[in-house]
Specification:
heterodimer, A: mainly alpha, Arc Repressor Mutant, subunit A, 56% helix, disordered N terminus, B: mainly alpha, 2 domains, 10 helices
């Protein structure tokens, strides 16, 4: 079983247990505000993952409560969300951590299995 | 996506039905937009059991979060006061802890009152039952002290909040509490005194606990009985007693719901929150001791005492085993809520230094 090494509240662990959906949502919001359905479609397009409604809103409510995203006013019933400055920082830290893991993995793969 | 005036978009009813999985405060904040998302999903894929299961799981998780039983942050809307209230999660956990103590006490007091009333007639013949009763009685005394310790600062904080203009927010839970407590006290006194076993005999000094206390506890927990499974026997009960058996659980529910709402709504100071968390920890210790004593009694198969009173009061039945199971579940949930309250509390650096 994989356990996160960062405790709740630590910067590196700001996305917590919902890091998967949270990273996808925040990556989607990195280029501008989106509402729930637009988030689902965008994430499906760039990651090939379809977030189910319950999972999407569980992550959205958690990110909003932590101040990493914020809801914008809207005239219709679909409320868009955008990334906050704290959210952008947390996303950057998360993606850099993922990139370093990916780089190590790719390097070791290349050393033992050759390049594709 | 936006419906024309006077028409309901297809799937709207199903979306509203699915939304009911979520707690009220969550629906108040996210309900509209979540419904819109579901309607859009239905248009793309009309039927999906995976999606329904995901919504149900998300809704149950949101309910657990709203009860302070998960480490997730609470959604801000629907909670009174500042939407970014950092102590909301801690208060929710403490409210859940209080509810679990109340459920535990209802099941525990039923057992304890039966044994206390039995002892009014004759001491138990089996040593296990006597030891169990002594442990359970000590725990009940502890619960009484802890109830006072928990209520005093909470009442003071609630009074202060009322003075500061939060009276309208607290009116309903306080009325619920007061109404429930009043009905339980009046009804418990009436039916306790009317019972021939121990009625109207305060401090008779023939049992382990005062007869009046035993009779009052018995009357308040009269509804917890296996007679519900035997309607023919139940039909022979006096109408007033049957009515009390229906009213007393409702009164208890009002009392507990009102208390939990007060805990969730009043903005206690960090010091009061720490105090309440400490009282909660002490209550958990008492619950564990009480459950241990109850287990001793339930598993013992000792002889019944010979006396003039009703027979079988010291014999544990299926309903007592079920009561013990309820107590254990309440203990586990209470312990979990206490852990969450501790984690949701202010960081150690924010706490004042301990006095030497």
């Amino acid at each position: 079983m994989i356990r996160p090494t960062a405790r709740d509240g630590d910067d590196a662990g700001a996305l917590g247990r919902s890091a998967g959906p949270a990273t996808l949502i925040m990556s989607s919001l990195a280029d501008g505000a989106k509402h729930g359905y637009a988030l689902t479609k965008d994430i499906e397009a760039f990651a090939g993952v379809r977030l189910a409604p319950g999972t999407l809103y569980e992550a959205l409510s958690r990110l909003e409560a932590r101040g990493l995203i914020e809801a914008l006013d809207s005239e219709d019933r679909r409320r868009p969300y955008r990334l906050t400055a704290a959210g952008a920082e947390a996303l950057r830290a998360q993606l850099q951590a993922q990139r370093s893991v990916a780089e190590v993995g790719l390097r070791r793969l290349a050393g033992h299995w050759g390049t594709a | 996506m936006t419906p024309a005036h006077g028409t309901t978009p297809p799937g709207s009813r199903r979306a509203h039905w699915l939304l009911r999985w979520y707690p009220r405060n969550w629906r108040a904040r996210y309900g509209e937009e979540f419904t819109e998302l579901l309607i859009a999903e239905f248009a793309e894929q009309p039927r999906s059991w995976r999606r329904a299961a995901d919504v149900a799981r998300g809704g149950l998780f949101a309910r657990l979060t709203s009860a302070g039983l998960t480490s997730a942050d609470l959604p801000s809307a629907g909670l009174p006061g500042d939407p970014h209230d950092p102590a909301a999660g801690q208060r929710a956990s403490l409210a859940t802890l209080a509810c679990s103590v109340a459920v535990f006490l209802t099941a525990g007091a039923t057992m304890w009152a039966q044994l206390a009333v039995g002892w009014e007639w004759a001491p138990p013949a089996a040593p296990g039952a006597a030891i169990a009763m002594a442990v359970m009685s000590a725990a009940m005394l502890l619960f009484t002290v802890l109830a006072v310790l928990a209520a005093a600062p909470a009442v003071a904080a609630a009074a202060l909040a009322s003075v500061r203009g939060q009276a309208s927010m607290l009116r309903r839970p306080i009325l619920l509490m007061a109404g429930g407590a009043l009905v339980l006290i009046l009804g418990g006194r009436h039916f306790g005194n009317a019972w021939p076993g121990t009625g109207a005999r305060w401090w008779p000094h023939q049992g382990l606990v005062p007869g009046g206390v035993a009779a009052f506890s018995w009357a308040c927990t009269l509804s917890v009985t296996s007679y519900w499974a035997h309607p023919a026997a139940l039909a022979s009960f006096p109408a007033a007693e049957l009515a009390w058996m229906a009213v007393s659980p409702a009164a208890m529910l009002c009392l507990v719901t009102g208390a939990a709402q007060v805990v969730r709504r009043v903005r206690f100071s960090p010091r009061v929150l720490r105090h309440e968390a400490w009282v909660g920890s002490a209550a958990l210790v008492g619950m564990a001791a009480f459950a241990g004593g109850a287990l001793c009694w339930v598993i013992e198969r000792g002889p019944e005492p010979r006396g003039p009173g009703p027979q079988g009061l010291f014999r544990a039945g299926h309903i007592d085993a079920a009561g013990l199971a309820v107590m254990v579940i309440a203990l586990v949930i209470g312990w979990q809520a206490r852990q969450r309250a501790r984690r949701a509390g202010p960081p150690a650096a924010a706490r004042p230094a301990a006095r030497r």
